[in-house]
Amino acid sequence: MRQPLVAGNWKMHGSRESVGTLLGALLASDIADTVEVAVCPTYVHLAQALELCAGSAIGVGAQDCSHAEAGAYTGEVAATMLADLGCDWVILGHSERRAYHNESDSLISAKLAAAIEAGLKPVLCVGETREQREAGEAEAVVAAQLAGALDGHSKLDGLVIAYEPVWAIGTGLTATPEQAQDIHAFIRAELAGVTGVNADATRLLYGGSVKPGNAGELFAQADIDGALVGGAALVAEDFQAICNAAA
């Protein structure tokens, strides 16, 4: 049985004060221990989050990593550095990275290799735009993103896939449970053909305006194993409710 996972992507939000307040509330909250929980703050707040979460059940991850281990890459952070700091997780291929930083599938594949080599657990994001969905291209887009990121890898233990329809990220729109399940089932079928992946054991997360009010219906679907949560992850009460819905 796949253990539910709920990860909070804090994006470019936070201050030392707000991180302390948010994590303090989460650490004091009653989150079911059957759910794996992680938070992904900005680079500058990782050390603080790791210190506060030390010894707790809350894992800490980064929102991205470099494809390179070291070198003249100003502004980049290597996966080995994140692992050395104590991070467990790293988000890769988020649609905002793809759109705003022109990240290609081949670059994401290289980042995935670096993350796995460093011992980090990657959360690989895939998803289509509204135009692509309306054109009936959702499955083709997701399949291409999976193939581009995963082909050629032989070591993919611990891989997590997050399906995040771009049209539902930060818009208030959410895929219906049925729409989300259809794509999650499609992703699991695609993974069955990827060398080095146990499709049945791979956790698939939904992301895209997940809230306490819709989490339960989403998690009730057969192939949805949790969520990658954006805005609601910045509100302790909401994030706790989503985590408990996953239980």
From TrEMBL:
Belongs to the triosephosphate isomerase family. It is found in: Cytoplasm. It is an enzyme of class 5 (isomerase). Its EC number is 5.3.1.1. It catalyses: D-glyceraldehyde 3-phosphate = dihydroxyacetone phosphate. The active site is at H94 (electrophile), E164 (proton acceptor). Homodimer. This is Triosephosphate isomerase. The keyword rRNA-binding does not apply. It comes from the Bacteria. Keywords: Cytoplasm, Gluconeogenesis, Glycolysis, Isomerase. SUPFAM superfamilies: Triosephosphate isomerase (TIM) (SSF51351). Its main location: cytoplasm. Pfam families: TIM. It comes from Seongchinamella unica. Pathway: Carbohydrate biosynthesis; gluconeogenesis; Carbohydrate degradation; glycolysis; D-glyceraldehyde 3-phosphate from glycerone phosphate: step 1/1; Carbohydrate metabolism; erythritol degradation. GO terms for molecular function: triose-phosphate isomerase activity. GO terms for cellular component: cytosol. The gene is tpiA. GO terms for biological process: gluconeogenesis; glyceraldehyde-3-phosphate biosynthetic process; glycerol catabolic process; glycolytic process. The lineage of its organism: Bacteria, Pseudomonadati, Pseudomonadota, Gammaproteobacteria, Cellvibrionales. Involved in the gluconeogenesis. Catalyzes stereospecifically the conversion of dihydroxyacetone phosphate (DHAP) to D-glyceraldehyde-3-phosphate (G3P). The keyword Ribonucleoprotein does not apply. Substrate binds at N9, W10, K11, G170, S209, G230, G231. InterPro entries: Aldolase_TIM (IPR013785), TIM_sf (IPR035990), TrioseP_Isoase_bac/euk (IPR022896), Triosephosphate_isomerase (IPR000652), Triosephosphate_isomerase_AS (IPR020861).
